[in-house]
Amino acid sequence: MRQEKFLADTLKDVYKEFPKSIQCGCLLGDYQCHLGNLMTVHDLIEKNALTNIRILDVGAGAGVVSITLKKKGFDVTVIDTWSEYADCYSNQMGNTQDILQRFRQNRIPCCVVDIEHSNLPFNDDTFDIVLFLAVIEHLHDSPRKILMEIRRVLKTKGYVVIATPNIAHIFNRLALLRGKTIHVSLDYWLYSDPFFGHVREYTLQEIKQMLKWTNLEVVIAKYVSHVGSLRSDKEQAKGFLNHSLEASKVCVRAFLFGLTILIPSLRPSFQIIGQKSEEWYKGDGQ
């Protein structure tokens, strides 16, 4: 609990580096996700007694998690195109110039690279942990190339942390029962050029299978109520009930949460941690 409070306090300090409008908007809504991701990284480091670690955040975006980890004393590098943060797109998390300046102020190296079409600009076996948080669902092409690159730059016994929405979550299922789409609105999809939304969401089993085909051993796979949280069901309950859901009544939220306790695959998100083994093991992939 002491460590969680320290991370929460540091996270709130990072929020203060953003404009007030962003603090009261996106950051406030994503607080549980950010804190959950941070707790996951902390637990991963503590349980495996990792020291002198290097962390790479692939598709770092505005970099809230990366900056917080840097303030905690870790060696962090970020990589992204940051194209969706150009002034002309009015991204709700700010613009590219402000984001990169924030990284520079926190002495975090930034690499501007298209991760879908270019190799990661790092040597083999460089990083202890690679973060791939809420990125895979945005890829327009197959994720195979970037997953292979992540494996390449990981040290032996290094970890990749993947967090992504669960396409099979309860709200998607309810939407389909009502004949509604589970994708972004049609006008956004039709008229966006370029499109920055979710291209494909996955089931947990699909991500596990892709990691296996990439020769990354799955060490943790868990459905969560917030992207990034690996805490227990009881610890997640409070955050879930306070989370902004389409259902407005507390009793409905409580009922839906109860269903996700009984049937974890109904939860909105999941997280998987994969580990690079010393040798390639025999999988059933291509």
**Approximate strand percentage:** 15-25%
Secondary structure tally, helices: 11
Q: Reading side by side through the largest sheet, how are the strands ordered?
A: 3-2-1-4-5-7-6
CATH topology: Rossmann fold
What sequence of helices (H) and strands (E) makes up the elements?
A: HHHEHEHEEHEHHHEHHE
CATH superfamily: Vaccinia Virus protein VP39
- Record field, number of beta strands: 7
Q: How many structural units, i.e. domains? A: 1
The biggest sheet, with number of strands, parallel, antiparallel or mixed sense and barrel status, is:
7 strands, mixed
Q: What is the second-level CATH architecture?
A: 3-Layer(aba) Sandwich
Task: Specify Rg, calculated over alpha carbons.
Answer: 19 Å
